[in-house]
Amino acid sequence: MKQSELDFINTLRQSSRYIEQHRGKTCVIYLPGDLMLASDSFKQLTQDIGLLHHLGLKMVLVMGAAPQINAALTDQNIPWQHHQQFRITTTEMVTVFQQAIGMVRSQIEAVFSQATNQQSTPLTLISGNWVIAQPKGVIDGVDFQHTGTLRKINHQAISTSLEGGQIVLLTPLAYSLTGEVFNLNTLEQACEVAKSIQADKLMIFGHSEQMKNLPKQMSITELNRTIKHAENEEQARFLTQISKTNFHVKRVHLMDQNEPDALLQELFTRDGYGTLIFSDRYHQLRPATIEDVGGILDMITPLESQGVLAKRSRERLELEIHNFIVIERDQHIIGCAALYPIAKGIGELACLTVHPSYQGQHLGHELLKAIEQKAQQAQMKQLFLLTTHTHHWFIEHGFMLTTVEALPSQRLSLYNSQRQSKVLLKSLI
Ligand SMILES: CC(C)(COP(=O)(O)OP(=O)(O)OC[C@H]1O[C@@H](n2cnc3c(N)ncnc32)[C@H](O)[C@@H]1OP(=O)(O)O)[C@@H](O)C(=O)NCCC(=O)NCCS
User: Fold this and answer.
1) Domain of residue 179, residue span
2) Is 86 a pocket residue for ligand 1 (Cβ < 6 Å)?
3) 172: closest CA among 246, 78, 94?
4) CA of 303 to the centre of ligand 1 (A)
Protein backbone atom coordinates (compact mmCIF):
# COMPACT_ATOMS: atom_id res chain seq x y z
CA MET A 1 0.00 0.00 0.00
CA LYS A 2 1.27 3.50 -0.81
CA GLN A 3 2.30 5.83 2.03
CA SER A 4 -0.45 8.30 1.06
CA GLU A 5 -3.06 5.52 1.37
CA LEU A 6 -1.71 4.47 4.77
CA ASP A 7 -1.77 8.11 5.89
CA PHE A 8 -5.38 8.34 4.79
CA ILE A 9 -6.35 5.20 6.71
CA ASN A 10 -4.56 6.42 9.85
CA THR A 11 -6.22 9.82 9.64
CA LEU A 12 -9.61 8.19 9.26
CA ARG A 13 -8.94 5.95 12.25
CA GLN A 14 -7.85 8.88 14.40
CA SER A 15 -10.87 10.96 13.44
CA SER A 16 -13.40 8.20 14.17
CA ARG A 17 -13.54 8.99 17.87
CA TYR A 18 -14.28 12.64 17.09
CA ILE A 19 -17.01 11.67 14.64
CA GLU A 20 -18.63 9.77 17.48
CA GLN A 21 -18.09 12.62 19.95
CA HIS A 22 -19.60 15.32 17.73
CA ARG A 23 -22.70 13.45 16.59
CA GLY A 24 -25.87 15.23 17.73
CA LYS A 25 -23.92 18.24 19.04
CA THR A 26 -25.01 21.79 18.23
CA CYS A 27 -22.51 24.02 16.56
CA VAL A 28 -22.77 27.74 15.75
CA ILE A 29 -20.37 28.86 12.99
CA TYR A 30 -19.55 32.52 12.46
CA LEU A 31 -18.63 33.22 8.84
CA PRO A 32 -17.38 36.76 8.16
CA GLY A 33 -18.41 38.24 4.81
CA ASP A 34 -14.76 38.19 3.64
CA LEU A 35 -14.96 34.39 3.38
CA MET A 36 -17.40 34.66 0.49
CA LEU A 37 -14.99 36.79 -1.53
CA ALA A 38 -12.74 33.78 -2.20
CA SER A 39 -15.33 31.81 -4.12
CA ASP A 40 -13.41 28.54 -4.55
CA SER A 41 -12.49 28.15 -0.91
CA PHE A 42 -15.97 29.25 0.14
CA LYS A 43 -17.42 26.51 -2.05
CA GLN A 44 -15.11 24.01 -0.34
CA LEU A 45 -16.16 25.35 3.04
CA THR A 46 -19.85 24.84 2.25
CA GLN A 47 -19.04 21.26 1.23
CA ASP A 48 -17.29 20.79 4.57
CA ILE A 49 -20.31 22.21 6.39
CA GLY A 50 -22.45 19.76 4.42
CA LEU A 51 -20.17 16.94 5.55
CA LEU A 52 -20.54 18.01 9.19
CA HIS A 53 -24.30 18.02 8.74
CA HIS A 54 -24.20 14.48 7.36
CA LEU A 55 -22.06 13.41 10.31
CA GLY A 56 -24.91 14.45 12.57
CA LEU A 57 -23.92 17.92 13.79
CA LYS A 58 -26.72 20.47 14.12
CA MET A 59 -25.58 23.73 12.64
CA VAL A 60 -26.40 27.40 12.85
CA LEU A 61 -24.51 29.65 10.43
CA VAL A 62 -24.19 33.33 11.26
CA MET A 63 -23.09 35.12 8.14
CA GLY A 64 -21.47 38.55 8.12
CA ALA A 65 -21.62 40.78 5.06
CA ALA A 66 -19.42 43.82 5.84
CA PRO A 67 -17.42 43.90 2.56
CA GLN A 68 -20.56 43.31 0.49
CA ILE A 69 -22.37 46.14 2.33
CA ASN A 70 -19.36 48.46 1.93
CA ALA A 71 -19.32 47.73 -1.82
CA ALA A 72 -23.08 48.35 -2.16
CA LEU A 73 -22.86 51.68 -0.26
CA THR A 74 -19.86 52.75 -2.33
CA ASP A 75 -21.74 51.87 -5.53
CA GLN A 76 -24.55 54.17 -4.49
CA ASN A 77 -22.23 56.94 -3.29
CA ILE A 78 -23.53 56.69 0.24
CA PRO A 79 -20.83 57.56 2.78
CA TRP A 80 -20.89 55.92 6.22
CA GLN A 81 -19.49 56.63 9.62
CA HIS A 82 -18.43 54.59 12.60
CA HIS A 83 -18.60 55.42 16.26
CA GLN A 84 -16.93 53.12 18.78
CA GLN A 85 -16.17 50.70 15.92
CA PHE A 86 -19.89 50.31 15.09
CA ARG A 87 -21.30 51.51 11.80
CA ILE A 88 -24.06 54.10 12.06
CA THR A 89 -26.92 52.82 9.92
CA THR A 90 -29.00 55.71 8.60
CA THR A 91 -32.53 55.30 7.24
CA GLU A 92 -31.14 55.89 3.74
CA MET A 93 -28.85 52.88 4.14
CA VAL A 94 -31.52 50.39 5.21
CA THR A 95 -32.69 49.54 1.70
CA VAL A 96 -29.09 49.12 0.54
CA PHE A 97 -28.51 46.78 3.47
CA GLN A 98 -31.60 44.75 2.66
CA GLN A 99 -30.51 44.42 -0.97
CA ALA A 100 -26.88 43.57 -0.17
CA ILE A 101 -27.79 41.03 2.50
CA GLY A 102 -30.56 39.55 0.32
CA MET A 103 -27.94 39.09 -2.37
CA VAL A 104 -25.50 37.45 0.07
CA ARG A 105 -28.19 35.07 1.26
CA SER A 106 -29.15 34.14 -2.27
CA GLN A 107 -25.47 33.49 -3.14
CA ILE A 108 -25.06 31.27 -0.08
CA GLU A 109 -28.18 29.29 -0.97
CA ALA A 110 -26.86 28.86 -4.51
CA VAL A 111 -23.43 27.67 -3.31
CA PHE A 112 -25.03 25.23 -0.88
CA SER A 113 -27.28 23.83 -3.59
CA GLN A 114 -24.26 23.31 -5.82
CA ALA A 115 -22.08 21.94 -3.04
CA THR A 116 -24.53 19.26 -2.12
CA ASN A 117 -25.99 18.35 -5.49
CA GLN A 118 -24.10 15.03 -5.45
CA GLN A 119 -25.78 13.94 -2.24
CA SER A 120 -28.95 11.91 -2.07
CA THR A 121 -30.46 14.23 0.55
CA PRO A 122 -29.72 17.85 -0.36
CA LEU A 123 -29.14 20.24 2.49
CA THR A 124 -31.81 22.75 3.31
CA LEU A 125 -30.91 26.15 4.66
CA ILE A 126 -33.56 27.99 6.56
CA SER A 127 -33.75 31.62 7.75
CA GLY A 128 -36.38 33.46 9.72
CA ASN A 129 -37.23 36.36 11.99
CA TRP A 130 -35.81 34.62 15.03
CA VAL A 131 -33.61 37.41 16.28
CA ILE A 132 -35.37 40.37 17.83
CA ALA A 133 -33.42 43.62 17.83
CA GLN A 134 -33.64 46.91 19.62
CA PRO A 135 -31.96 50.23 18.73
CA LYS A 136 -28.41 50.65 19.95
CA GLY A 137 -29.62 54.11 20.83
CA VAL A 138 -27.79 57.40 21.35
CA ILE A 139 -24.26 57.03 22.75
CA ASP A 140 -21.99 60.02 23.48
CA GLY A 141 -24.62 62.16 21.73
CA VAL A 142 -24.35 60.00 18.57
CA ASP A 143 -27.57 58.40 17.33
CA PHE A 144 -26.88 54.95 15.89
CA GLN A 145 -30.30 54.97 14.18
CA HIS A 146 -30.80 51.54 12.53
CA THR A 147 -27.76 49.95 14.12
CA GLY A 148 -29.26 47.58 16.63
CA THR A 149 -28.37 45.28 19.46
CA LEU A 150 -29.83 41.91 20.10
CA ARG A 151 -32.86 41.92 22.38
CA LYS A 152 -33.94 38.31 22.40
CA ILE A 153 -33.73 35.14 20.40
CA ASN A 154 -36.49 32.72 19.59
CA HIS A 155 -34.26 29.81 20.52
CA GLN A 156 -37.14 27.34 20.46
CA ALA A 157 -37.80 28.07 16.79
CA ILE A 158 -34.11 27.66 16.01
CA SER A 159 -33.93 24.38 17.94
CA THR A 160 -37.05 23.06 16.17
CA SER A 161 -35.47 23.74 12.77
CA LEU A 162 -32.25 22.04 13.87
CA GLU A 163 -34.16 19.01 15.12
CA GLY A 164 -35.89 18.92 11.73
CA GLY A 165 -32.51 18.42 10.06
CA GLN A 166 -32.20 21.93 8.63
CA ILE A 167 -29.21 24.24 8.73
CA VAL A 168 -30.16 27.59 10.21
CA LEU A 169 -28.79 30.71 8.52
CA LEU A 170 -28.74 34.08 10.29
CA THR A 171 -27.67 37.35 8.69
CA PRO A 172 -26.94 40.85 10.08
CA LEU A 173 -30.59 41.88 9.60
CA ALA A 174 -32.98 41.64 12.52
CA TYR A 175 -36.32 43.21 13.39
CA SER A 176 -37.72 45.02 16.38
CA LEU A 177 -41.08 44.27 17.94
CA THR A 178 -42.28 47.54 16.38
CA GLY A 179 -41.41 46.20 12.91
CA GLU A 180 -38.29 48.26 12.26
CA VAL A 181 -35.25 46.80 10.50
CA PHE A 182 -31.88 46.79 12.27
CA ASN A 183 -28.32 46.02 11.33
CA LEU A 184 -26.62 43.84 13.96
CA ASN A 185 -23.01 43.03 14.57
CA THR A 186 -22.81 39.41 13.42
CA LEU A 187 -19.99 38.31 15.73
CA GLU A 188 -22.03 39.54 18.70
CA GLN A 189 -25.04 37.77 17.25
CA ALA A 190 -23.13 34.49 16.84
CA CYS A 191 -21.96 34.64 20.46
CA GLU A 192 -25.45 35.45 21.78
CA VAL A 193 -27.15 32.76 19.69
CA ALA A 194 -24.59 30.18 20.85
CA LYS A 195 -25.33 31.18 24.46
CA SER A 196 -29.05 31.20 24.00
CA ILE A 197 -29.33 27.77 22.37
CA GLN A 198 -26.60 26.43 24.68
CA ALA A 199 -24.49 25.32 21.75
CA ASP A 200 -21.80 22.73 22.37
CA LYS A 201 -19.45 24.56 20.06
CA LEU A 202 -19.02 28.04 18.70
CA MET A 203 -16.64 28.17 15.74
CA ILE A 204 -15.39 31.58 14.71
CA PHE A 205 -13.33 32.63 11.72
CA GLY A 206 -11.27 35.72 12.48
CA HIS A 207 -8.76 37.69 10.42
CA SER A 208 -5.02 37.55 10.95
CA GLU A 209 -4.80 40.60 13.28
CA GLN A 210 -7.47 39.10 15.52
CA MET A 211 -5.73 35.72 15.55
CA LYS A 212 -2.18 37.05 15.94
CA ASN A 213 -0.01 34.89 18.25
CA LEU A 214 -2.93 33.27 20.04
CA PRO A 215 -2.01 30.04 21.86
CA LYS A 216 -3.48 26.68 20.86
CA GLN A 217 -5.65 26.47 23.94
CA MET A 218 -6.96 28.84 26.58
CA SER A 219 -9.19 28.42 29.58
CA ILE A 220 -11.67 31.24 30.28
CA THR A 221 -9.23 32.57 32.92
CA GLU A 222 -6.38 32.56 30.42
CA LEU A 223 -8.62 34.27 27.86
CA ASN A 224 -9.22 37.15 30.24
CA ARG A 225 -5.47 37.42 30.81
CA THR A 226 -4.83 37.40 27.04
CA ILE A 227 -7.33 40.24 26.56
CA LYS A 228 -5.30 42.38 28.97
CA HIS A 229 -2.12 41.71 26.99
CA ALA A 230 -3.70 41.62 23.52
CA GLU A 231 -1.47 42.13 20.47
CA ASN A 232 -3.64 44.96 19.18
CA GLU A 233 -6.95 46.74 19.83
CA GLU A 234 -8.71 44.71 17.20
CA GLN A 235 -7.73 41.49 18.97
CA ALA A 236 -8.76 42.86 22.36
CA ARG A 237 -12.26 43.72 21.03
CA PHE A 238 -12.59 40.36 19.27
CA LEU A 239 -11.63 38.38 22.37
CA THR A 240 -13.72 40.56 24.67
CA GLN A 241 -16.79 39.81 22.58
CA ILE A 242 -16.00 36.09 22.71
CA SER A 243 -15.38 36.19 26.46
CA LYS A 244 -19.04 37.21 26.92
CA THR A 245 -20.05 33.65 26.08
CA ASN A 246 -18.31 32.88 29.37
CA PHE A 247 -19.32 29.49 30.75
CA HIS A 248 -22.41 29.17 28.54
CA VAL A 249 -20.66 27.57 25.58
CA LYS A 250 -18.34 24.69 26.44
CA ARG A 251 -15.91 25.17 23.58
CA VAL A 252 -15.14 28.11 21.35
CA HIS A 253 -12.81 27.46 18.41
CA LEU A 254 -11.05 30.38 16.73
CA MET A 255 -9.70 29.87 13.21
CA ASP A 256 -8.01 32.05 10.64
CA GLN A 257 -10.39 33.02 7.83
CA ASN A 258 -7.56 32.58 5.31
CA GLU A 259 -7.58 28.87 6.13
CA PRO A 260 -11.17 27.67 5.78
CA ASP A 261 -9.97 24.03 5.76
CA ALA A 262 -9.27 24.63 9.45
CA LEU A 263 -12.91 23.81 10.19
CA LEU A 264 -12.47 20.07 9.66
CA GLN A 265 -8.97 20.00 11.11
CA GLU A 266 -10.18 21.74 14.25
CA LEU A 267 -12.98 19.24 14.77
CA PHE A 268 -11.40 15.96 13.74
CA THR A 269 -7.75 16.06 14.73
CA ARG A 270 -6.19 15.85 18.14
CA ASP A 271 -4.13 19.03 17.81
CA GLY A 272 -6.76 21.03 15.98
CA TYR A 273 -5.65 23.98 13.95
CA GLY A 274 -6.62 27.23 15.58
CA THR A 275 -7.24 28.22 19.18
CA LEU A 276 -9.56 26.37 21.51
CA ILE A 277 -11.16 28.26 24.42
CA PHE A 278 -12.66 25.86 26.90
CA SER A 279 -14.87 26.38 29.89
CA ASP A 280 -15.56 22.76 30.72
CA ARG A 281 -12.11 22.12 32.17
CA TYR A 282 -11.23 24.50 34.88
CA HIS A 283 -7.62 23.57 35.38
CA GLN A 284 -4.46 25.55 35.06
CA LEU A 285 -1.17 24.46 33.54
CA ARG A 286 1.78 26.39 35.03
CA PRO A 287 5.43 26.13 36.11
CA ALA A 288 5.78 24.26 39.42
CA THR A 289 6.85 26.00 42.63
CA ILE A 290 8.33 24.61 45.83
CA GLU A 291 4.79 24.55 47.35
CA ASP A 292 3.83 21.93 44.76
CA VAL A 293 6.37 19.34 45.95
CA GLY A 294 3.92 17.69 48.39
CA GLY A 295 1.17 17.44 45.75
CA ILE A 296 3.55 16.01 43.15
CA LEU A 297 4.87 13.42 45.61
CA ASP A 298 1.32 12.34 46.55
CA MET A 299 0.65 11.69 42.89
CA ILE A 300 3.90 10.01 41.82
CA THR A 301 4.76 7.92 44.90
CA PRO A 302 2.26 5.10 44.10
CA LEU A 303 3.66 4.97 40.53
CA GLU A 304 7.21 4.82 41.88
CA SER A 305 6.22 1.86 44.06
CA GLN A 306 4.81 0.07 41.00
CA GLY A 307 8.06 0.72 39.11
CA VAL A 308 6.29 2.91 36.53
CA LEU A 309 8.37 5.95 37.48
CA ALA A 310 11.95 6.14 38.76
CA LYS A 311 12.18 7.02 42.47
CA ARG A 312 12.73 10.65 43.47
CA SER A 313 13.35 11.73 47.04
CA ARG A 314 11.65 14.85 48.42
CA GLU A 315 15.07 16.55 48.60
CA ARG A 316 15.85 15.81 44.97
CA LEU A 317 12.41 16.97 43.88
CA GLU A 318 12.83 20.22 45.81
CA LEU A 319 16.18 20.84 44.09
CA GLU A 320 14.77 20.06 40.66
CA ILE A 321 11.36 21.66 41.00
CA HIS A 322 12.22 24.44 38.52
CA ASN A 323 12.29 21.76 35.79
CA PHE A 324 8.66 20.80 36.44
CA ILE A 325 5.34 22.02 35.16
CA VAL A 326 2.08 21.08 36.84
CA ILE A 327 -1.63 21.03 36.17
CA GLU A 328 -3.62 22.30 39.12
CA ARG A 329 -7.34 21.92 39.59
CA ASP A 330 -9.20 23.17 42.65
CA GLN A 331 -5.85 23.61 44.42
CA HIS A 332 -4.87 19.98 43.79
CA ILE A 333 -2.00 18.87 41.61
CA ILE A 334 -3.49 16.50 39.02
CA GLY A 335 -0.62 16.34 36.53
CA CYS A 336 3.08 17.04 36.19
CA ALA A 337 6.01 16.69 33.81
CA ALA A 338 9.65 17.72 33.84
CA LEU A 339 12.19 18.86 31.28
CA TYR A 340 15.90 18.37 32.02
CA PRO A 341 18.60 19.84 29.78
CA ILE A 342 21.10 17.02 29.15
CA ALA A 343 23.39 18.29 26.40
CA LYS A 344 23.51 21.20 23.98
CA GLY A 345 20.19 21.27 22.10
CA ILE A 346 19.01 18.06 23.79
CA GLY A 347 16.51 17.68 26.60
CA GLU A 348 14.94 14.84 28.56
CA LEU A 349 11.25 14.62 29.28
CA ALA A 350 10.60 12.89 32.58
CA CYS A 351 7.92 12.14 35.13
CA LEU A 352 4.98 12.85 32.82
CA THR A 353 2.07 11.89 35.04
CA VAL A 354 -1.66 12.46 35.19
CA HIS A 355 -3.58 11.58 38.34
CA PRO A 356 -5.59 8.36 37.65
CA SER A 357 -8.93 10.15 38.27
CA TYR A 358 -8.19 12.57 35.46
CA GLN A 359 -6.63 10.30 32.86
CA GLY A 360 -8.16 10.08 29.40
CA GLN A 361 -9.01 13.81 29.19
CA HIS A 362 -5.97 14.69 27.06
CA LEU A 363 -4.17 16.21 30.03
CA GLY A 364 -1.16 13.99 29.29
CA HIS A 365 -1.19 15.34 25.76
CA GLU A 366 -1.47 18.91 27.08
CA LEU A 367 1.52 18.40 29.39
CA LEU A 368 3.55 16.89 26.58
CA LYS A 369 2.76 19.84 24.28
CA ALA A 370 3.76 22.29 27.02
CA ILE A 371 7.08 20.48 27.57
CA GLU A 372 7.77 20.47 23.84
CA GLN A 373 7.05 24.19 23.70
CA LYS A 374 9.35 24.80 26.67
CA ALA A 375 12.09 22.73 24.99
CA GLN A 376 11.73 24.66 21.74
CA GLN A 377 11.95 27.94 23.63
CA ALA A 378 15.21 26.65 25.13
CA GLN A 379 16.48 25.96 21.56
CA MET A 380 16.33 22.20 22.07
CA LYS A 381 16.11 20.15 18.91
CA GLN A 382 15.71 16.67 20.40
CA LEU A 383 13.75 15.28 23.28
CA PHE A 384 14.66 11.96 24.91
CA LEU A 385 12.66 10.03 27.43
CA LEU A 386 13.00 6.80 29.35
CA THR A 387 9.97 4.71 30.20
CA THR A 388 9.21 1.22 31.42
CA HIS A 389 5.42 1.04 30.86
CA THR A 390 4.30 3.80 28.55
CA HIS A 391 6.28 3.63 25.32
CA HIS A 392 3.18 3.01 23.18
CA TRP A 393 1.57 6.23 24.40
CA PHE A 394 4.69 8.18 23.47
CA ILE A 395 4.99 6.48 20.06
CA GLU A 396 1.40 7.56 19.38
CA HIS A 397 2.55 11.07 20.23
CA GLY A 398 5.39 11.19 17.71
CA PHE A 399 8.30 9.58 19.62
CA MET A 400 10.42 6.81 18.13
CA LEU A 401 12.06 3.92 19.92
CA THR A 402 15.83 4.16 19.89
CA THR A 403 18.73 2.40 21.59
CA VAL A 404 20.25 3.15 24.98
CA GLU A 405 23.49 3.96 23.18
CA ALA A 406 21.75 6.83 21.38
CA LEU A 407 21.59 8.70 24.71
CA PRO A 408 24.09 11.56 25.07
CA SER A 409 27.13 10.38 27.07
CA GLN A 410 26.20 12.54 30.10
CA ARG A 411 22.90 10.67 30.38
CA LEU A 412 24.20 7.26 29.31
CA SER A 413 26.50 7.12 32.33
CA LEU A 414 23.47 7.55 34.61
CA TYR A 415 21.32 4.93 32.85
CA ASN A 416 19.97 2.44 35.38
CA SER A 417 20.36 -0.91 33.64
CA GLN A 418 18.25 -2.67 36.30
CA ARG A 419 15.12 -0.73 35.24
CA GLN A 420 15.66 -1.72 31.60
CA SER A 421 13.79 1.40 30.51
CA LYS A 422 13.05 1.85 26.86
CA VAL A 423 14.59 4.93 25.28
CA LEU A 424 12.51 7.12 22.99
CA LEU A 425 13.39 10.14 20.95
CA LYS A 426 11.46 12.92 19.27
CA SER A 427 12.86 15.52 16.93
CA LEU A 428 11.53 19.01 17.60
CA ILE A 429 12.57 20.51 14.29
C1 LIG B 1 0.64 8.31 30.15
C2 LIG B 1 -0.27 9.32 30.84
C3 LIG B 1 0.53 10.53 31.27
C4 LIG B 1 -1.36 9.73 29.83
O5 LIG B 1 -2.19 10.70 30.44
P6 LIG B 1 -3.68 11.00 29.94
O7 LIG B 1 -4.08 12.35 30.40
O8 LIG B 1 -4.56 9.85 30.30
O9 LIG B 1 -3.44 11.01 28.37
P10 LIG B 1 -4.41 11.38 27.22
O11 LIG B 1 -5.78 11.66 27.69
O12 LIG B 1 -3.73 12.44 26.39
O13 LIG B 1 -4.39 10.00 26.40
C14 LIG B 1 -5.20 8.93 26.86
C15 LIG B 1 -5.00 7.73 25.93
O16 LIG B 1 -3.72 7.15 26.21
C17 LIG B 1 -3.91 5.75 26.43
N18 LIG B 1 -2.88 5.27 27.34
C19 LIG B 1 -2.73 5.53 28.67
N20 LIG B 1 -1.65 4.86 29.15
C21 LIG B 1 -1.12 4.20 28.11
C22 LIG B 1 0.00 3.31 27.97
N23 LIG B 1 0.77 2.98 29.00
N24 LIG B 1 0.25 2.82 26.75
C25 LIG B 1 -0.52 3.13 25.68
N26 LIG B 1 -1.59 3.96 25.75
C27 LIG B 1 -1.89 4.46 26.95
C28 LIG B 1 -5.29 5.64 27.03
O29 LIG B 1 -5.82 4.35 26.87
C30 LIG B 1 -6.06 6.68 26.20
O31 LIG B 1 -6.39 6.12 24.96
P32 LIG B 1 -7.74 6.56 24.18
O33 LIG B 1 -7.61 8.06 23.99
O34 LIG B 1 -7.67 5.79 22.90
O35 LIG B 1 -8.85 6.22 25.07
C36 LIG B 1 -0.99 8.68 32.05
O37 LIG B 1 -1.60 7.49 31.63
C38 LIG B 1 -0.09 8.40 33.22
O39 LIG B 1 0.05 9.24 34.11
N40 LIG B 1 0.52 7.21 33.26
C41 LIG B 1 1.38 6.84 34.37
C42 LIG B 1 2.70 7.58 34.36
C43 LIG B 1 3.59 7.23 33.19
O44 LIG B 1 3.64 6.11 32.72
N45 LIG B 1 4.31 8.23 32.68
C46 LIG B 1 5.26 8.12 31.59
C47 LIG B 1 6.65 7.97 32.12
S48 LIG B 1 7.58 9.42 31.76
Assistant:
1) 3-278
2) no
3) 94
4) 13
363 lines ligand 1 (CB under 6 A): yes
Q: Are 336 and 203 contained in the same domain?
A: no
Residue 14 and residue 148 share a domain: yes
Q: What is the mean pLDDT of each run of 10 residues along the chain (429 residues)?
A: 82 82 94 90 90 93 94 94 90 94 92 78 86 93 93 92 94 92 94 92 95 88 90 95 84 92 86 82 84 96 92 95 90 93 95 90 91 95 94 94 92 87 94
CA-based nearest residue to 326, from 302, 294, 357, 361: 294
CA atoms within 13 A on the CB side of 391: 13
Q: What is the pTM of this model?
A: 0.66
Regarding the beta carbon of 361 and ligand 1, being less than 6 Å apart is answered yes
Residues in the chain: 429
Whether 306 and 212 share a structural domain:
no
Nearest atom, ligand 1, residue 358 CA: 7
Question: How many domains are contained in the chain?
Answer: 2
Does 229 share its domain with 303?
no
Helices (H) and strands (E) in the chain, counts: 16, 23
Q: Which of 116, 129, 201, 134 is nearest to 158 (CA)?
A: 129
Three-state SS at 87: strand
How far apart are alpha carbons 409 and 83 in whole angstroms? 65
The answer, yes or no, to whether any atom of ligand 1 lies below 6 A from the CB of 397, is no
The response to whether residue 360 sits with its C-beta less than 6 Å from ligand 1 reads yes
For the domain that residue 30 is a member of, what is the CATH number? Answer: 3.40.1160.10
